[in-house]
């Protein structure tokens, strides 16, 4: 690994690093964040508590008629129970049950609230059993935003929905999934993964939870190709793991008549700590990043393997230098042009002098 950081007579100082097998580990693809830190990757769906604004129905069963709710003359009534009118969990987080009063519900599981109501009625009803049914769950919703066909709030069920489930429920992606990121926000914590990662790694496709926000964003990643390439310009990655070798090939490779295979240069801003880890003196650089030029000598077979493993990053710049023979031809063209001009001027001067002499005669 060759590293050069001498002072140069240019506006921006930089470090020059020759690409080799040893360099690859320092420039490996950045580690993305993960959804696995939120939990919910394995096991069953998370339990969903009742919440503010949920609409619930409460049914109260008694062991026999003649109790608090079931009169003794109930006759052929199908079952010893009553259904209370639907009610909304109010802003205080409670529901109202006759003879049980205002019962806290928001933030509690249905089973817990059912047991609470049964305990409150135990001294007055005959072996009461309570069943709570959620008819509208306004608190158990997930917001899906961004580049989907139908952005909306989606209600999640007790069966559980995963990230890909709610994206599908929102109509799926409107963009190319290769360059699409999925961001999950939950209780002040945020993580972003590539959409392709969700497809490839089931552990990332976790269960969503109430009040999650999922944002889908298309991120166009590009690089610039300059110099003696088949085609110069800006190119889209169009794939998740583009390598330096693939980026060169995408631009038409090196021009046989101009390019110097030993001088393929990649320009990138690299974190200062990464440069320091390569035992490069980075104290001269004041910022958090260091301008780095990575030089690939494609005449070396080992480097050909390295460029196929070196991962490109967004906004990288590749410059393919001209060969020395091309520079020599350019120099000779300039010399010939100057010589032709001087010769032409001399001939014109001689012609003018002869014309003047003829006039004098």
UniProtKB/TrEMBL annotation:
Recorded protein name is Sugar ABC transporter substrate-binding protein
InterPro entries in alphabetical order: Poly_export, Poly_export_N, SLBB_dom, Soluble_ligand-bd
Compartment list:
Cell outer membrane
The cross-references to Pfam families, in alphabetical order and at most eight, read:
Poly_export, SLBB, SLBB_2
Q: Name one GO molecular function term.
A: polysaccharide transmembrane transporter activity
Keyword line = Cell outer membrane, Ion transport, Lipoprotein, Membrane, Palmitate, Polysaccharide transport, Porin, Signal, Sugar transport, Transmembrane, Transmembrane beta strand, Transport
This entry carries the following GO cellular component terms, namely: cell outer membrane; pore complex
Q: Where is the Soluble ligand binding domain?
A: 241-271
This protein's record includes keyword Ion transport: yes
Q: What is its main location?
A: membrane
Membrane-crossing segments per the record: none
Q: Record's family?
A: Belongs to the BexD/CtrA/VexA family.
Q: Does the keyword Signal apply?
A: yes
The processes (GO biological process) annotated in the record are: monoatomic ion transport
The Polysaccharide export protein N-terminal domain, residue ranges: 46-133
């Amino acid at each position: 690994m060759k590293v050069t950081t001498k002072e140069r007579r240019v506006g921006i100082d930089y470090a020059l690093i020759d690409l080799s097998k040893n360099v690859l580990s320092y420039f490996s693809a950045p580690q993305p964040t993960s959804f696995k830190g939120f939990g919910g990757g394995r096991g069953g769906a998370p339990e969903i508590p009742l919440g503010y604004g949920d609409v619930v129905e409460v049914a109260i069963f008694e062991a026999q008629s003649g109790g608090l709710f079931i009169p003794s003359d109930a006759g052929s009534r199908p079952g010893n129970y009553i259904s209370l009118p639907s009610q909304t969990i109010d802003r205080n987080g409670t529901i109202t049950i006759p003879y049980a009063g205002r019962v806290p519900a928001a933030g509690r599981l249905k089973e817990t609230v059912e047991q609470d109501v049964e305990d409150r009625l135990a001294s007055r009803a005959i072996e009461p059993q309570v069943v709570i049914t959620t008819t509208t769950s306004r608190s158990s919703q997930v917001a899906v935003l961004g580049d989907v066909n139908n952005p909306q709030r989606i209600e999640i069920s007790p069966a559980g929905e995963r990230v890909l489930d709610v994206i599908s429920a929102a109509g799926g992606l409107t963009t190319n999934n290769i360059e699409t990121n999925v961001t999950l926000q939950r209780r002040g914590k945020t993580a972003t993964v590539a959409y392709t990662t969700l497809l490839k790694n089931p552990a990332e496709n976790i269960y969503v939870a109430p009040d999650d926000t999922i944002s889908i964003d298309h991120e166009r990643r590009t690089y610039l190709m300059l110099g003696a390439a088949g085609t110069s310009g800006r190119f889209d990655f169009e794939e998740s793991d583009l390598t330096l070798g693939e980026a060169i090939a995408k631009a038409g490779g090196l021009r046989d008549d101009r390019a110097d295979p030993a001088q393929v240069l990649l320009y990138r801003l690299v974190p200062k700590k990464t440069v320091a880890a390569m035992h490069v003196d980075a104290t001269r650089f004041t910022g958090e990043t260091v301008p780095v030029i990575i030089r690939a000598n494609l005449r070396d077979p080992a480097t050909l393997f390295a460029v196929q493993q070196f991962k490109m990053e967004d906004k990288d710049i590749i410059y393919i230098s001209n060969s020395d023979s091309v520079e020599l031809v350019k120099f000779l063209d300039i010399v010939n042009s100057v010589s032709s001009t001087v010769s032409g001027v001399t001939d014109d001067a001689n012609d003018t002098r002869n014309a003047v002499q003829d006039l004098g005669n």
